[in-house]
């Protein structure tokens, strides 16, 4: 995964409050497709839906299946193994068999790149 893990640009004051890690150029994301990255020992997936990006740990809380293989619609990811769904903004499970949340991470676009903060609990609170 070339390019993953760079540090945030110092010139962007909007990004000063967290330890942002660059995952890739925004142009490398196709709408509706997820990509996986290893960031500081955490496997995450990042997906793009239109102009919105989501990032979450790449493991279902039910049995650990990779969520990067699941469909994403309206900010909700479907686990392809047993059908649990998760809100990618909060990480909360929305349907069984999962009953525990997944880790989700704030995402920002800056300098044409996609940045993820592993220290954030939710994209809703950067
Ligand atoms: S592993 Fe995802 S619902 Fe079972």
Features:
single chain; Rieske Iron-sulfur Protein; four-stranded antiparallel β-sheet; 40% strand; disordered C terminus; binds FE2/S2 (inorganic) cluster
What does this entry show, briefly?
With 126 residues, the chain is mostly beta strands. The chain has strands at residues 6-7, 20-25, 34-39, 42-49, 52-57, 72-73, 76-78, 85-87, 93-95, 104-105, 107-110, 113-117.
Instruction: Note the overall shape.
Output: globular
The total count of helices amounts to 0
Structural class: mainly beta
| CATH topological fold name | Rieske Iron-sulfur Protein
* Unreliably modeled segments: 122-126
Q: How many beta-strand elements?
A: 12
SSE run? EEEEEEEEEEEE
Give a quick account of the main beta sheet: strands, pairing sense, barrel closure: 4 strands, antiparallel
Q: Which ligands does the model contain, each kind named once?
A: FE2/S2 (inorganic) cluster
CA-atom Rg in angstroms: 14 Å
Overall CATH class: Mainly Beta
Output mean pLDDT: 87
Beta-strand share of residues: 35-45%
CATH architecture identity = 3-layer Sandwich
